[in-house]
Design goal:
CATH topology of the domain at 101-111 and 122-357 in chain A: Ferritin
Shape of chain A: globular
CATH topology of the domain at 93-108 and 118-354 in chain B: Ribonucleotide Reductase, subunit A
Order of helices and strands of chain B: HHHHHHHHHHHHHH
Largest sheet of chain B: none
Largest sheet of chain A: none
CATH class of the domain at 101-111 and 122-357 in chain A: Mainly Alpha
Distance between the termini of chain B: 57 Å
Number of helices of chain A: 14
CATH superfamily of the domain at 93-108 and 118-354 in chain B: Ribonucleotide Reductase, subunit A
CATH architecture of the domain at 93-108 and 118-354 in chain B: Orthogonal Bundle
Strand content of chain A: under 5%
Order of helices and strands of chain A: HHHHHHHHHHHHHH
Bound molecules: fe (ii) ion
Oligomer: heterodimer
């Protein structure tokens, strides 16, 4: 359509396009800016990855990002950059994780589709109280992930453009969490049940109220993800069908990436500061643990759901719940060790310690 | 399906059962008995929005973390950030578009045939790198802006939150694919522009739908859909085609949100027109975002790509084709406004756009 419309005008002078100032003659000053010429990528089995693309000078993310708008890293900044953006994070230490670019590509390779890649038809009718217990557990997972997701998405606008790998990675995390919200909700409604009772919301509130980005990462990617991952790793003892096992396995796989970002970020944060940063992490852990314990202490439906789902008798269910709680705390401590924050065990908040020992 | 009193009694009598409450089993406060089976497209959000779980309230005082349909607790923590009105964010197509987004994800690493990229004349390669520098600059603004509102979406309207997450994922891929394209053929990134930070000034979700989804992404989508005209190879064609597919979801989400607002709150029409005035540049030249895909260095780069080079004839042809793209952008913009129910925009549209608009069909 475009060509035929304008064919007869081709001999005329360049048109005056409303809103498009056609330069009187070729300018191309943009082609002469002194940006780096990247090496030609050697594309491998994983395709043209971000790591391959951001080669040479393009790989370098400075400790402080100097541009207040959306200037892409490696481009030649405009003289007139318009409005300074509302970004608040210009220091690499506040968001960086060395593995962001790789986790981003990995997340895309490992994306799964809850609507079609879970064998929903393998779910068989269960005894009413077992189904209700599973529904309560999956409702809680759905709620947790909605909270982590909503708050994290809201923080993207704080991160300046120079750390694009981090923004990209966090986008995959947001999309993973959205699918967790959706997939576990679907499970609750697929087998004669429905959703359970909401959580007391102490931990949700802590996530909303986090002042610092790293604080948010400690709550969502370190504490909550450690606990949820340990739960998913016991998923074969909660689930009763192939679909249930797929849900827990796929989610665990995503959570390992989320944990991995949390670990590498915390490492980078601690590496680039003094003792005060360690004290900050301690304070965030303490606060997160108190809120987590408050939820666990008050959430009777969830506690009882675990007991019913995990054991064929109440006694065995209680023993298994204790086992789960211990595995969750172990996972958190191990995560902290990997994040170069070892020796946290004696500092675990007493309220959390108590609910782990007496679940 | 409820739990029989016998089983509850039996559980309480078991060793260790004395401290069990079980009231959540005895008298569940959320609807039970749903057995939703997967349909042709698997088990979708629309499938499970059924019975009371499909009742989307026009207003709610649910401001805890509770997702729609779950049983409330009286001691749950609240957040005043959560919006209680459906019209604040609702879009009737959110569930469908979210599921489509999940099904149609693609990888910039493997779904673009990078290995088949031809060597282009340097001026074309430079122009493509310049266009992609512009695109990689503005693409994630379309992730930052919707993200800003995610913490306000109550669990009562959680599907909106899920859709926003899918858009953020898409925009990450767009930032990434255009960055990769600029870096793929030895040129690299070139001149950055003033960018699209202005879109982050949105103070209201409907303002965002008007400025980002309808105008910003609408213009970008029209451009991508004409990607065949300026793509120089199969690699470029595929890249623009895949990105266009994603953009059409984002635009559709915004259009359906605006339609819902215009239908249910007609008193907001004039307010919405003011957002469009701003985007069209009617508050002063500096206010426009709608010219983004056409002006300055991006315009010149596009003209070179469209004309196939930098000779006088090629440039003239390039600018002619750019004019055709511009026309299409403006006409598709008007068409979307008609779908929204704001066909009267035709009488208010900026003069420079009016000049490109086809006559009304009837
Ligand atoms: Fe985009
Ligand atoms: Fe978009």
């Amino acid at each position: 359509m475009a060509e035929t419309d304008t064919q007869e005008d081709l001999q005329a002078a360049p048109p005056q396009i409303p809103g498009i100032p056609a330069p009187p003659q070729l300018d191309m000053s943009w082609a002469k800016v002194p940006t780096a010429r990247p090496p030609k990528p050697k594309i491998g089995a994983e395709g043209f990855t971000l790591r391959l693309a951001d080669a040479g000078e393009y790989a370098y993310a400075p400790d402080h990002w100097p541009y207040e708008n959306d200037t892409p890293r490696g481009s030649y900044p405009a003289k007139d950059r318009g409005l300074p953006a509302p970004y608040t994070i210009y220091d690499k230490a506040e968001v960086w994780a060395e593995n962001s670019a790789d986790l981003y590509e990995l997340a895309i390779r490992e994306q799964w589709k809850p609507a079609t890649q879970i064998s929903w038809s393998t779910i068989e009718p269960l005894a009413g109280h077992i189904e209700a217990a599973i529904d309560q557990i999956v409702s809680n997972i759905s709620e947790q992930q909605y909270n982590s997701n909503a708050v994290m998405m809201g923080r993207l606008k704080d991160i300046s453009y120079g750390y694009h790998e981090v923004k990209l990675y966090l986008a995959t995390q947001a999309f993973d969490q959205a699918r967790h919200v959706e997939a576990f909700r679907k499970r609750a409604l697929a087998n004669g049940g429905g959703l359970g009772v909401e959580s007391p919301g102490f931990f949700n509130r802590a996530v909303y109220a986090s002042f610092k980005f790293t604080e948010l990462v400690v709550y969502t990617n370190i504490i909550r993800t450690s606990f949820l991952l340990a739960l998913c790793e016991m998923g074969d003892r909660i689930g009763r069908s192939q679909a249930d096992r797929q849900l827990f396995e796929n989610t665990a796989n995503d959570l390992r990436r989320h944990l991995s970002y949390g670990i590498e970020h915390l490492k980078h944060y601690l590496l680039t500061g003094d003792e005060q940063k360690r004290r900050n992490v301690r304070a965030w852990l303490d606060r997160g643990e108190i809120m987590l314990a408050a939820d666990m202490r008050r959430d009777k439906p969830l506690r009882e759901a675990f007991i019913l789902a995990l054991g064929d008798t109440v006694e065995r269910g209680k023993a298994s719940l204790r086992e789960l709680r211990q595995a969750q705390l172990r996972k958190l401590l191990r995560t902290l060790e990997l994040a170069t924050f070892p020796g946290h065990e004696p500092y675990v908040n007493a309220s959390l310690r108590d609910i782990i020992d007496n679940p | 399906m409820t739990t029989s009193p016998d089983i509850l009694e039996q559980l309480r009598r078991e060793p260790g059962g004395e401290d069990l409450d079980l009231s959540w089993l005895d008298q569940p406060l959320a609807e039970r008995g749903l057995r939703v089976a997967p349909g042709k497209r698997g088990l979708t959000l629309e499938d499970i929005a059924t019975s009371s779980y499909g009742d989307i309230p026009s207003s709610t005082d649910n401001n805890t973390g509770r997702l729609r349909g779950a049983a409330p607790r009286t001691d749950a923590q609240r957040s005043q950030m959560l919006w209680g009105s459906k019209s604040a964010s609702w879009s009737a197509s959110a569930m469908l578009l979210y599921e489509e987004a999940v099904q149609r994800q693609w990888s910039s690493a493997t779904d673009v045939p990078w290995a088949e990229m031809p060597e282009l004349p340097e001026e074309l390669e430079l122009a493509m790198s310049q266009l992609c520098t512009f695109l990689t600059q503005v693409e994630f603004i379309a992730g930052d802006v919707p993200g800003k509102y995610a913490p306000n979406i109550s669990g009562e309207f959680f599907e909106i939150g899920l859709f926003l997450a899918s858009q953020i994922m898409d925009e990450a891929r767009h930032l990434d694919v255009f960055r990769k394209r600029a870096l793929a053929n030895g040129i690299g990134l070139l001149q950055a522009g003033p960018g699209a930070i202005g879109l982050l000034t949105a103070q209201d979700f409907t303002e965002m739908a008007s400025t980002l989804h309808l105008v910003g992404e609408g213009f970008v989508q029209s451009l991508f859909r004409m990607g065949e005209m300026f793509a120089q190879s199969e690699v470029d064609k595929r890249m623009f085609r895949l990105a266009a597919q994603d953009e059409s979801r984002h635009v559709a989400f915004g259009v359906m949100h605006m339609k819902y607002v215009v239908e249910t709150q007609p008193e907001r029409r004039e307010e919405i027109h003011t957002y469009l005035d701003r985007m069209e540049g009617q508050l002063g030249a500096g206010s426009a975002q709608a010219g983004l895909t056409g002006g300055g260095q991006t315009g010149e780069a596009l003209a070179i790509l469209l004309g196939g080079g930098t000779s006088e004839t090629q440039l003239r042809e390039g600018y002619m084709k750019l004019l055709a793209i511009r026309k299409r952008q403006v006409n598709e913009y008007m068409h979307r406004l008609e779908v929204v129910g704001l066909g009267d925009r035709r009488q208010k549209i900026a003069p420079m756009m009016l000049a490109l608009l086809d006559p009304a069909r009837n």
